[in-house]
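Quick illustration for those who missed Monday's session on complexes.
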Amino acid sequence: GIHSYRAFSSKLTPSNYAFAFDIDGVLIKGKRTIPEARSAIRMLNGDNALGRKVPFVLLTNGGGVTEQAKAEQISNMLDVQISPEQVVLSHSPMQALVDQYKDKNVLVVGGKDRECFEVAKGYGFNNVIIPDDIHHWQSSVWPFRHPSRDSLSPDADSLDFSKIPIGAVMMFHDSRDWGRDIQIMLDVICSENGVVGTQKGDCTVQEIPIYFSNNDIIWSTEFPVPRLGQGSFKMALESVYKTLTGTNLQSTSYGKPYPTTYAFAEQVLGRINNGKKPSRIYAVGDNPAADIQGANNYGWSSILVRTGVFQEPGNSSHFPATSVCQHVEEAVKWVIQQEE
Ligand code: G3P
Ligand code: MG
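Prediction with SN-glycerol-3-phosphate bound:
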């Protein structure tokens, strides 16, 4: 019948436009689902008068888990169907670093327990170190507490870091212990050849590359006021490094608003849109400095919603969006009205 044909044809006809949804502050706030998110995603999954789906990705500065796990989490919270290939996490584009570092010892910082260890291994980094392993090796690294056993990597008991030169530091998600992680990152950066416990002569010459997966100063959860994000942690690390060495920390950042992340998301959208990059991409976000700045700079349309970080009247003064909506459902309806 017509419905099965339409359903069939929707698989073949690439769409001229697509969406990129931020997660925190747009679809969810911590453990709370934003009610309008459910209907917004359902509309794009076919529950609309168009008789076809509209492609979309989730484009978040969040992470610390696999794309599969995030897809399941959001699908369950919104009671919709989102596939892992539609999910771009803060560290998803960092898979491009695997060739360069796959056989080096890489310190991966942040996230819950050893989840980022698993993510990095899953990407193809073969020798992944996490701060808890170093802390477990010598508890005096950070004498104020001991790491819990379930946060250690499988080989933790056999790792002697006096013999393990670390070749790079990558932050995959928010630190759960800023003090401990700033200490260990500085230990690596200021060491001889990345060997923790050594002190290089001239610490103003930085040899160990540092990568951050997001620069969010703040982000939106169920708490009524935004929380500090990875960007604030980075500022804290930079400040201590500057005080200790007199020079500025050099690092590379991924995530919104940086172009690398948008190029990666466009590739994903092309793949889920039957190989055709959509002519127009609408980014929906709650953080002007990340979601709106990044989309505007990359030539996408941007829609700022009021359910997260941004709570001022009117549009963002620093990073004005194409359009401002109350919430994500209003944003989807606005775009469909423009496009259809
Ligand atoms: O750690 C997550 C936070 O930085 C922001 O995530 O989804 O608002 O980009 P999101
Ligand atoms: Mg957000």
